[in-house]
Amino acid sequence: MSSRLTRRSVLASSAVAVPATVAACAKTSPEENGFGSTSNINGSGKSSATSTPAATSTPTANPTPAELTITSDHPITELHPDDTLKFAVVNGSLKDVKITEKNDDEVKGTLEDTVWTPEEPWSLNTSYTVTTTLTNTDSRVDPTTTVTTKIKSLDGDTNVVEMLYGDATVGVGMPVIIKFHKEVIDAKMRAKIEKAMEIDVSPKQEGSWGWLDQSQLMWRPKEFWKPNTKVSVRGKLKGLPTSSHRWITRDIEDSFRIGDSRILKIFIDEHKMDVLVNGKRERSIPITTGRPGASTTTRSGTKVIIERDRTKIMDAETIGIPKGSSDYYRLKVKYAMRVTYTGEFIHAAPWSEGSQGSANVSHGCVGLSTENAKWLFNLCAAGDPVVNSGSNRQFKPGEGIGCWCYDWEGWQKLSAL
């Protein structure tokens, strides 16, 4: 009997020694029995124990700095001139954007929300560096993160555009001519270009833009300009497309001034020219014009002096008459004023003075005596109207500065808007 009691007391001593070791590793709740198990006292007064797994530590998450994605309307390595940049940030927010090109020249632009718009369209064939500052939301990383991204604009082609006769004093028939070196075939693109144009006329006169063809945008008044008018033109054209792979790379800003009113009236069938200056006839000059024929008759219609040359080589090959032909000629003439791109000039023709005032004997030009030609040359300027009548061959718009081939209603229909 005493030996059993002694054995139980030994077992009890062993059982009491274990909780001290567990407690060093894990907490025990009031309901636990000291062995890491939950005690449940049943109705018989006996206890049962349910074992639980040993406690494990929770892994610590890695720091999460802000991440950035930049997109655009086109790939960011093929930006079109009018593209914007869009910034998407996770685990943070967008704080600042700085864009530079070569030589660290900063590109100006505006940031609204997460969209950055360049102040000027992207230049073609150019690389840029985008330096973006992000604010981190994870407190375990630095407050901000800086991200550097390389972007590039499209390797596109340039359509050169210019205003002809800028900064000149021109005649009352000269329209504003915006010349594109490559055609703008798409009508919607022409409309965007025309919408970007502004014109200031002093004194005010009614007028309209119109596309003479797909490479010439013109503004002409309803009637010939008033003398001494000042005309200023501006166009925010940089970055506008003129085809799927070609863009305008600069804006337009230019002006010209209208001089005195000088109008030349040519009566083909009467072999004479009346010269009107500010509404008054200054001189009536005997002339000869093109002899009858499909390719030689001088064209009727309102032309405009395009250019003036004190001396000019007239070579028939330039109008399709080959060397060896009985009609071929190559002459050095004086006081030449071009009125068509097809070869019509007003010039001195001393060899035809015997026919001037009585017959038409030229290849299409208007011939005058040297004296009259010199006087007229010194009087006139580019832009002076030349109103021809009396032949059955009509001047066509594309054969010269042809905006006056149209009446006012017809001209307005040539607007792209």
TrEMBL record:
Signal peptide, first to last residue: 1-23
Coiled coil: none
UniProt pathway annotation: Cell wall biogenesis; peptidoglycan biosynthesis
Superkingdom, taxonomy of origin: Bacteria
Region described as Disordered: 28-69
Gene3D superfamilies per the UniProt record, alphabetical: 2.60.40.3710, 2.60.40.3780, L,D-transpeptidase catalytic domain-like (2.40.440.10)
Biased composition (Polar residues): 35-46
Span of domain L,D-TPase catalytic: 262-389
InterPro entries assigned: Big_10, LD-transpeptidase, LD_TPept_cat_dom, Transpep_catalytic_dom
Keyword vocabulary terms for this entry: Acyltransferase, Cell shape, Cell wall biogenesis/degradation, Peptidoglycan synthesis, Signal, Transferase
Residues of the active site: H347, C365
PROSITE patterns, A to Z: LD_TPASE (PS52029), PROKAR_LIPOPROTEIN (PS51257)
Transmembrane as UniProt keyword: no
Compositionally biased tracts (Low complexity): 47-66
Listed PANTHER family: L,D-TRANSPEPTIDASE, L,D-TRANSPEPTIDASE YCIB-RELATED
Name recorded for this polypeptide: L,D-transpeptidase
Species name: Cutibacterium equinum
